[in-house]
Amino acid sequence: QVELAESGGGLVQAGGSLRLSCAASGPTFSAFTMGWFRQAPGKERVVVARLAWDASANYADSVEGRFTISRDNAKNTVYLQMNSLKPEDTAVYYCAAGAPGRGWNYWGQGTQVTVSS
């Protein structure tokens, strides 16, 4: 069983930066694919960034070049550095984890990010 806890959300002005953290429990963190998703009001939850166990990363087109996903396996933590934030980045951000090839099995409770114009 893996438990995930996000932190670092908040209110920021457009053009600003935030760093989200996701602390994971469990002994197999380094083997998991980690991801960040977001869900805006009235919209579906969508993937923002994905980081495989081998450090290969993928990003949604809307955040490419502005967001960076990274992990610290010694701390069982994955990060999402968000720069040049836009009002359309406003959403609840969720951390997710999954064994490779098995989808997203574990979810955090989410952290609110609000970007003011």
Describe it.
This protein has 117 residues and is mainly beta. It has no helices and eleven strands. The strands form two sheets. Strands 2, 4, 5, 6, 9, 10 and 11 form a seven-stranded mixed β-sheet that branches. Strands 1-3-8-7 form a four-stranded antiparallel β-sheet, with no helix packed on it. The mean pLDDT is 95.
Secondary structure layout plus pairing:
Layout (H helix, E strand, L loop, with lengths): L3 E4 L2 E4 L4 E7 L8 E7 L6 E6 L5 E3 L7 E6 L4 E6 L8 E8 L7 E2 L3 E6 L1
Helices, by number, come to 0
Based on CA atoms alone, the radius of gyration comes out at: 13 Å
Q: pLDDT under 50 segments (min length 5)?
A: none
Order of helices and strands: EEEEEEEEEEE
Structural class based on helices, strands and sheet pairing = mainly beta
Number of strands: 11
> Biggest sheet: strands, sense, closure?
7 strands, mixed
**CA(first)-CA(last) distance:** 40 Å
Mean pLDDT: 95
Specify the oligomeric state: single chain
> Overall 3D geometry?
globular
Helical percent range?
under 10%
Strand content: over 45%
Short summary:
By secondary structure, this protein is an all-beta fold. It is built from no helices and eleven strands.
Q: Main traits of this protein?
A:
single chain, 117 residues, mainly beta, seven-stranded mixed sheet, four-stranded antiparallel sheet, 11 strands, 0% helix, globular
